[in-house]
Amino acid sequence: MDFVAGSYDVLVIGAGHAGIEAGLASARLGCKTAIITMNLDAIGNCPCNPSIGGTAKGNLVREVDALGGEIGKTADECFLQSRMLNIGKGPAVHSLRVQIDRSEYSRIMKHKLELQENLEIKQAEIVEINKNKDMWSLKTRLKTIYLAKCVVISTGTYLNGKIHIGEVSYVSGPDGMFSSDFLSVSLKNLGIAMRNFKTGTPARVLKSSINFSVLEEQLGDKKIIPFSYSSKILNKNWENKASCYIAWTNEDTKRVILENIHRSPMYSGRIDGIGPRYCPSIEDKMVRFPDKERHQLFIEPCGMNTEEMYLQGMSSSLPEEVQIKFYKTIKGLENVQIMRPAYAIEYSCIDPTQLKVTLEFKNNSGLFGAGQFNGSSGYEEAAAQGFVAGVNAAKKAKGEEPFILDRASSYIGTLIDDLVSKGTNEPYRMMTSRSEYRLVLRQDNADERLMPIGRKLGLVNNDVWENFLYKKDKKEKEINRAKNTIITPSKELNDEIVSRETSPIETGVKLSDLLKRPQLNYGILKPFDKTRGKIEEEILEKAEIEIKYEGYIEKQKRQIEEMRRLECQIIPEDFDYKSLTGLRLEAREKLEKIKPRSLGQASRISGVSPADVSVLMVWIAKKRRMGE
Predict the structure, then answer these.
(1) Cα(86)–Cα(95) distance, rounded to whole angstroms?
(2) Long-range contacts (CB closer than 8 Å, 24 or more residues apart) made by 512-521
């Protein structure tokens, strides 16, 4: 007879970046929670790049942190190098990226889970999942049973994992871990549609075998800005601990790869899964960009207490002997020693259009999906989904209203809306271009957008909240001061601003109007701004962005108001679209499949035209008039 080992409000399958956030959020909301994972030593593992953040991804980390999540705090605790990307461009695309100590990140996350009240972590493989009345029953490989009101599945790339290196393929999860080979059968029995995606990772190489003297060193920023708002309160003297290096492929690299391209499982047809378009393997790059003379790669440290280096931009699934040959054609890597070969991994995931915007399955109440299981890629995308799924699982278990973020509130909302409304035919990666409101969804204002929500949830502590209120008040006062401060003309001022290629002033001008000029900023105008007191640079940066881009921001806010007007028009979950005359056949099919929550979500479904939306709008208005 099977042994029932415990009953929980929320049970999380998997302890990667999604599972961690889901488990912590649920437990912190007062639910009895358990995380079950196949190997406790792989909690928070980073099987691909040893970094957190990057373009758009850094925004996700900031947003999770503002809501009360953990990824940003832990990245700050173990970073090796910090760089703010895209600082030469507008603030909408500024994004933080840090190199982390990979093993330290995992150790810290595991310890946080161990210390968390209401949370248990267990090493086991879930092989079967079934619904019994109002409880989910999960069976382990050892035939132990766990019961839960709600379940979050965050299996990452472990579900039916299969490694491909040249002609060799074998069943495995990432980093030589076991794969999960039985759970998908239960999921299919629940009516969940599964499919295969693939991703890849570069080789890890020995540091002492690299000739760094011929490589370009890439230093971290002198001024380090942490991810987490709780880290900023500490006022630490943050320091970079390591450098990265830049190298380049050449014609010899290209020749070796193309001569052996037929041995790549992607080109021989041995991999069925679809790979990420925005993170191609080096062989993909050579084929897709045949006229490009060279490709950049970054050599990055994996940690302080290891000699392993990561070759960012050089993922591959070619045979090991071919990898050795083409890596050694690169200047600085002529004598490189490969410690772990590059590989591709194929894994099972779901079609995310089966999910609600809460990340709960439409046809399986109390079952949630998060992370790469939902068809996304990346640690940051996983953490964001894990947080949302964990909060909603906890709310479902407690009988509370769901937690929903829309596209205008956050990149998290954009990510989830894209997945559940549009679906994805490849591993989904967050990019700034995916948001139509990116000037509003900047990383510098993630706290103002989301911290009040995190506070209301009960996941933002008093110190962080009080610091947020203080800085928000200081920023608003500074904007008001800039709008009411007159800068008088002088020879010195005009000489300065003319040298910046902008016109001189002849009469007094508001400080805010000068700041709106692209060529000017607070730093340039400081000698002429007599009323400015001592104020933190962070406050000035926030104020300057809002002043400089005020017109554009207001325009986006009006667009957001219109979008939210449509989002407020809720469509019943059980609505029969077949009965609605005036809809095209394709629209009916798509609407029946997605079952949008609102008119706004319906308008973003591929195959649903503006005319179809108008038909729905008329129907909703009619129902409202009838009081139904």
Answers:
(1) 7
(2) 512/479, 512/482, 512/483, 512/485, 512/547, 514/487, 515/482, 515/544, 515/547, 515/548, 516/547, 516/548, 516/550, 518/548
Q: What is the DSSP string of 348-375?
A: EEE-GGGB-TTSBBTTSTTEEE-GGGGT
Structure confidence by residue, pLDDT tens digits, 384-441: 999 999 999 999 999 999 999 999 999 999 999 999 999 999 999 999 999 999 999 9
Q: How many CB atoms lie within 10 A of CB 510?
A: 15
pTM for the full predicted model: 0.94
Place of tokens 């002043």: 547
- Residue corresponding to tokens 């800039």: 482
Would you list the DSSP string of 382-401? HHHHHHHHHHHHHHHHHTPP
CB 163 within 8 A of CB 27: no
Looking at per-residue confidence, does 104 or 598 come out higher? 104
pLDDT digits (tens, 9 = 90+) for 187-206: 999 999 999 999 989 999 99
- What amino acid is encoded at 499 in this protein? S
Dihedral sign of CA atoms 566, 568, 569, 573 in order: positive
Binned at pLDDT 50, 70 and 90, residue 232 comes out as confident
